[in-house]
Design goal:
Subcellular location: Cell membrane
CATH class of the largest domain: Mainly Alpha
Number of strands: 11
Oligomer: single chain
Largest sheet: 5 strands, antiparallel
CATH architecture of the largest domain: Up-down Bundle
Membrane topology: Multi-pass membrane protein
Structural class: alpha+beta
Radius of gyration: 29 Å
Shape: elongated
Protein name: RND superfamily putative drug exporter
Keywords: Cell membrane, Membrane, Transmembrane, Transmembrane helix
Distance between the termini: 41 Å
Strand content: 5-15%
InterPro entries: MMPL_dom (IPR004869), Mycobact_MmpL (IPR050545), SSD (IPR000731)
């Protein structure tokens, strides 16, 4: 790291020119990169995906989309009875006015299940093609327009469905650029407090270069494989937080070295040797967590892993080259007005560390109690999709849904099961599957759009929404019954996709977990020159992650706070792909703070301080820094939570809470108390392991009591 720092300082102008060119190129290519991102949640090789492909190939819609429900409500005093032909014509107008749609209603099935109990409202299922771009809107308005053009006079038309409810009655929230600017503004306020000088702008400049460099590196990846649209949000906002955090760590250490009397050149080199090394190891841990997603047999998760890993890669590269180049040139002039000094550890955090070390058992028990309560909540987690009640609270889609619900129509109509059959076996298949417990109706449409090439799509309506790991049991029963049944070619639908996802992803989760834990442990053994400290770090990360899931259960699944903060009622489940994303990002991001703190504690111990003194000095030096860095990352996730869609909000709030929990309960209580309790055992690395990892061996030195360790407690 010293040699690299010297190289950067000698060529700092060329380093600046290089990153300026990257900034311009990244800005020019960002829009093109975003346009090449895909919307694809398929699971190749899974039965549901194969069935979906057959359905789309046959009838060009459905399979991997939930249908829109078009409703017609007759005026007061009139009923559907007597107006069947007019209502049928109104629904038939959908297929004529909206391309590639398939309508299933009473007219083509002969089933009165499409009427409400009061006989005033009829509805039709409208299946449509899966959207090909992120900003593509479901055909809500075209369907409404088509029906209104043919509906009986005085009748009220409504359109609802999972996708219609998901977009609610607004424009969908701010875009990526707006969210990034919001996160950047919050970060600037924190940085202004931390530095109290013009240096507050430096981490933002580093973050801007890092984000656009990531977009630039992402572009060629989009030509090699499909990359999920979710990556653009992560690059912009996670990249913002990570790059600022890394630069913040390095710049703060540079100021500390200057306040200790070093000249500018020496201060930059010293900061790179210490904080720079911590940044490097932190970036590697974040990348490991994300790259582990590659082992999952899910293309969109793999793409998120590959694209997401570019975030810490770019952030580390920019931080360890552009930041020292700027500091080595104009750093002292930019550090104006110099109000805050870093020559001493934070008095507040030093006192806190002394208190925790002295009351380490009590601190440990308090932290474990907090995490334990959240772990209990985690045991009740349901994996699935947001329920219809949580998707929107107002708007025409909600009004149409309430009309159906009040009329006795099950919300299972929002998430039907589609069964592709041979046409001559469709009626018998429907009759058999309709007998399964949990199926409200089995429908065979005679419409031309439901049959093609001797294949017909049978639609099953469950008696409730199949939106989570517990409500999809009826889907499993259908799949089991349909397996080997004559004439059945495949089973598809939202519930089927969830069953396949639970099997494909969470079935491989132990492999992903083991891979991440092993690689991270080996990396941290080399970083800390210890066997125990990395083991503690990995275990604490896993424990804190279960606590984060518990918080998501309480906040979103059970609705304790989601309605008050976002106006969204309980979701009934945690979106099936979100826990994996939260795990992949948080495992590395929260390890950042572990590395920063323990690296400083190790540095103080190597300088000859006893373990407790090293803990106190390490926390005193890094406490304010870690808290500020966590707050910046939290604000980035808060900006992400302002984006469109409940699923994105669930992920963003999970990440945000995880960062705060990690920076407070885990790093402020658990880490100092456990390191203090472990004492000499923290610093042991056998000679053989050290030679294998090509680092110096480590053995605990003789510790002499430091009278200053506890002398200030209570003062």
């Amino acid at each position: 790291m010293r040699r690299w720092a010297e190289f950067v300082l000698r060529h700092r102008r060329w380093v600046g020119v290089f990153w300026l060119l990257v900034l311009v190129a990244g800005g020019a290519s960002a829009s093109r990169t975003s346009d090449r991102l895909t919307v694809d949640f398929s699971l190749p090789g899974q039965p549901g995906t194969e069935a979906t492909s057959l359905i789309v190939q046959a009838v060009h819609n459905g399979g991997n989309t939930t249908p829109m429900l078009a409703t017609v409500t007759m005026p007061e005093g009139q009923t559907i009875t007597g107006n069947e032909d007019a209502v049928a014509q109104a629904f038939a107008a959908i297929e004529q006015g909206v391309p590639d749609t398939r309508v299933v209603d009473e007219a083509n099935t002969g089933d009165t299940a499409f009427r409400t109990d009061d006989d005033r409202t009829a509805y039709a299922m409208v299946f449509y093609p899966f959207p090909q771009t992120f900003d593509a809107k479901p055909p809500t308005e075209p369907i409404r327009t088509a029906v209104e053009g043919a509906v009986p006079s005085g009748a009220v038309v409504g359109v609802t469905g999972i996708d219609a409810l998901a977009i609610g009655d607004d424009s969908g929230g701010p875009g990526v650029l707006t969210e990034t600017l919001l996160g950047g503004l919050g970060a600037l306020l924190v940085l202004a407090f931390v530095f109290a000088s013009m240096l507050a702008l430096l981490p933002l400049a580093v973050a801007a270069v890092s984000i656009l460099a990531t977009f630039l590196m992402l572009l060629p990846l989009t030509y090699l494989t499909d990359v999920s649209f979710i990556v653009q949000f992560l690059v912009a906002l996670v990249g913002l937080g990570v790059a600022i955090d890394y630069s913040l760590i390095l710049v703060t250490r540079w100021r500390e070295e200057r306040d200790h009397g070093k000249n500018n050149h020496e201060a930059v080199v010293a900061a790179m040797e210490t904080a720079g090394q911590a940044v490097l190891f932190s970036g590697l841990t974040v990348a490991i967590g994300l790259l582990a997603l590659i082992v999952l047999p899910v293309p969109f998760m793999r793409s998120i892993g590959m694209g997401g890993a570019l975030i810490p890669f770019a952030s580390v590269m920019v931080t360890l080259s552009l930041t020292p180049a700027i500091l080595g040139g104009i750093g002292p002039r930019v550090d104006w007005p110099k109000i805050r000094h870093e020559n001493k550890a934070s008095k507040g955090w030093t006192k806190w560390a002394r208190l925790v070390v002295r009351r380490r058992v009590a601190a440990l028990l308090v932290a474990l109690l907090a995490l334990g309560l959240l772990f209990v909540a985690f045991l009740g987690i349901k994996i699935g999709a947001a329920s219809s009640d949580s998707l929107a609270q107002s708007g025409p889609a909600v009004t149409a849904l309430h009309t159906l619900e009040d009329g006795g129509i099950t919300t299972g109509a929002l998430t039907p099961i589609e069964v592709l059959t041979e046409s001559d076996q469709a009626s018998s298949v429907a009759a058999e599957l309709g007998k399964i417990q949990g199926i409200d109706a089995a429908l065979v449409s005679t419409g031309a759009t439901s049959t093609a090439d001797g294949r017909t799509v049978v639609v099953l309506i469950p008696d409730g929404e199949t939106v989570n790991s517990r409500s999809v049991e009826v889907v499993r029963r259908v799949k089991d019954a349909a397996d080997g049944m004559p004439g059945v070619l495949g089973v598809a639908g939202l519930g089927t996709a969830q069953v396949d996802f639970l099997h494909a992803v969470y079935g491989n989760f132990p492999l992903m977990l083991s891979l991440i834990a092993l690689l991270t442990y080996v990396l941290l053994v080399r970083a800390f020159r210890s066997l125990l400290l990395p083991l503690k770090a990995v275990i604490l990360n896993l424990v804190s992650l279960t606590a984060v899931y518990g918080a998501m259960v309480l906040f979103w699944q059970d609705g304790h706070g989601s309605d008050a903060l976002f106006g969204i009622s309980e979701t009934g489940a945690v979106t099936f792909w979100v826990p994996l994303m939260v795990f992949a990002f948080l495992f590395g991001l929260s390890m950042d703070y572990e590395v920063f703190i323990l690296a400083r504690i190790r540095e103080e111990y190597d300088a000859g301080h006893p373990t407790d003194s090293a803990v106190i000095e390490g926390i005193g030096r890094t406490g304010r820094l870690v808290t500020s860095a966590a707050l910046i990352l939290f604000l980035a996730f808060a900006a992400l939570a302002s984006g469109p869609g409940t699923d994105l909000k669930v992920m963003a709030t999970g990440l945000g809470f995880g960062i705060l929990l990690d920076a407070t309960v885990v790093r402020s209580l658990l880490v100092p108390s456990l390191v203090s309790l472990f004492g000499r055992w923290n610093w042991y690395l056998p000679d053989g392991v050290a030679r294998l990892l090509r680092v110096e061996p480590s053995h605990a030195h003789t510790e002499r009591p430091d009278q200053s360790t506890f002398s200030q407690v209570g003062k």
